[in-house]
Every structure is written in C-alpha cells, then in structure tokens.
Amino acid sequence: MGIWLELGIFGLVFVFAFWQMHDVRKAQEQTRQQRAREKAAKEAADQASEKAGDEPT
C-alpha cells in the first residue's frame, strides 16, 4: 500500500516539474519576442534618424 502512495507523490512531483518547465519555456519565448520587438523598433528609429540626418537643412 505504501508504494502506491510514494508512486503517487512521485507522479505529482513529476507532473509539477513538467508544468514548471512549460511555464519557463513560455516565459522565455515571450522574452525573445519582446527583445525582437525592441530591436526592430530601435533599428527603425536609427534608420529614420539616418534619413533625417542625410537631408540638407
């Protein structure tokens, strides 16, 4: 009887670990997307400032 209790606890810990890894991967993907958006916005701003600097005033 005790082995089933231990196996049940082990199973719950195992499922919890997989759930946590899923959350970590999701958070990492959101961070990657955020950094990509920030990089694209910075590059667009840099290009706009270069074009503005090229025009004679």
Write structural notes for this entry.
With 57 residues, the chain is mainly α. The protein contains one helix and no strands. The mean pLDDT is 91. Helix content is 93%, strand content 0%.
For the largest beta-sheet, the strand count, sense and barrel status come to:
none
Helix content bin: over 70%
Instruction: Please state the CA-atom Rg, rounded to the nearest Å.
Output: 25 Å
| First-residue to last-residue Cα separation | 86 Å
Tertiary shape: rod-shaped
Strand content: under 5%
Structural class: mainly alpha
Query: What string gives the helices and strands in order?
Result: H
* Beta-strand segment tally: 0
How are the elements arranged and paired?
Layout: H1 2-54
Summed up:
With 57 residues, the chain is mostly helical. The chain has one helix at residues 2-54. The chain has 1 helix and no strands.
List descriptors:
1 helix, 0% strand, mainly alpha, 57 residues, single chain
